[in-house]
Specification:
By secondary structure, the chain is α/β, with parallel strands linked by helices. It has one domain (about 5-345): TIM Barrel, CATH 3.20.20. The chain is built from 13 helices and 11 strands. The strands form 3 sheets. It has a 7-stranded parallel sheet with strand order 6-5-4-3-2-1-9. A two-stranded antiparallel sheet has the order 7-8. Helix 3 links the parallel strand 2 and strand 3. The longest helix has 22 residues, at about 325-345. It is globular.
């Protein structure tokens, strides 16, 4: 089912006070491995993903899983860990594209210049970037400055080559108390290059870094991001999301809008942070069957509030709850996608909401 149809069906559930159950997209954590050591990386329990190794599906089984997911949503977000540590990433992305899925790849991008097939098979490339300064970036990723410089070189490669491949590039920044100026620089770079941008606060466990609460510099940064959005920049997230991460307001989370799949093909229920993942989507034969079994084991979704102020949770939940703002956001997002697709000669069907 497509994004728009699922969105409309979910509106009825939201209006009735129920949890929406139709996925708008899937997030496939293709690996927990990572060749970096980012300071803010957290799996919901305060551990880096690389410190929680899990078995991974081989190429054929991963493609089989993608085929199952394609029956329930039209967008696949591939993330990790660092997905580029898998040498079959291109094959999996290409398979998803052949099935008609829009592919979104979340990565730090280190090594992109050596793997041009990744850009050719990613409709949206989300590059995690928190500063343009090599020394500060090195401190964030826990690697030598030469590695940080190489990562910035891969960013420039992606920006240069994306028009030819029809790939929309989005810069994803994490705001920490120590790096607010760096995020401002990334925002300015994204706007100057016509790239997308989205912002999340640093999360420790499932809660925002306490040092960000009431931090004047942080609030000023979020206000600046909101101002650039109003001015027409491709900043993602409806206004209520930006207000919510500025003030850390409560929100009702709808985790099944973007179900998360582990590297071994198991469904996190209801979300990654719960760590409940006994049911394999492959063994169940479909997402809906896996969800039914997970719900039978663990019951209904708890009404979490005041935590997980992340783009993947908060922004998508608020998008579903505010259809007029979602319509405006969808138009902005679709303009970015169509502009990128036109550059590479791609034909894409865009979401209407």
């Amino acid at each position: 089912m497509g994004f728009f149809a699922s969105y409309l069906r979910n509106l009825g559930s939201v209006a009735a006070g129920r949890q929406p159950g139709r996925p708008l997209l899937f997030s496939y954590y293709i690996t927990h491995r990572c060749n970096l050591g980012c300071r803010y990386c957290s799996d919901g329990e305060g551990k880096r993903f690389r410190d929680d190794p899990l078995p991974e599906l081989g190429t054929d089984r991963a493609c089989e899983l993608v085929g199952i997911l394609a029956k329930s949503a039209d967008t696949l977000d591939v993330t990790g860990g660092e997905p580029m540590v898998r040498d079959d990433l291109e094959a999996i992305l290409a398979h998803a594209r052949r099935l008609g899925l829009r592919t979104v790849l979340n990565t730090k991008g280190l090594g992109l210049r050596d793997r041009p097939g990744i850009l050719r098979n990613a409709d949206v490339l989300v590059l995690s970037l928190d500063t343009l300064d090599p020394a500060r970036l090195a401190a964030i990723i826990g690697r030598p400055e030469a590695t940080a410089a190489a990562m910035l070189g891969d960013l420039r490669f992606a920006v240069r080559e994306a028009p030819a491949t029809g790939t929309a590039v989005v810069l994803s920044a994490v705001a920490t108390p120590e790096n607010l100026d760096g995020v401002r620089d990334v925002l300015a770079f994204a706007e100057a290059e016509g790239l997308g941008f989205h912002l999340s606060p640093e999360i420790r466990g499932t809660a925002p870094n306490p040092a960000l609460r009431g931090h004047d510099g942080y609030r000023s940064l979020v206000d600046a991001v909101s101002a650039r959005k109003r001015a027409g920049a491709s900043v993602l997230g409806i206004p209520r999301y930006l207000e919510g991460i500025r003030d850390f307001t409560d929100f009702r989370c709808h985790p099944l809008l973007m179900p998360v799949i582990r590297p071994d093909g198991r469904l996190y229920y209801p979300c990654l942070e719960s760590k409940q993942a006994e049911v394999s989507v492959l063994d169940a034969g479909g997402y809906e069957a896996a969800l039914l079994e997970a719900r039978r084991r663990h019951g209904e979704i708890p009404d979490c509030r005041g935590c997980c102020h992340l783009f993947c949770h908060m922004a998508i939940s608020l998008l579903q709850r505010h259809p007029l703002a979602a319509l405006r956001e969808g138009r902005r997002y679709n303009r970015m996608i169509r502009r990128a697709a036109a550059g590479g000669g791609r034909h894409v069907e865009c979401a209407s909401a």
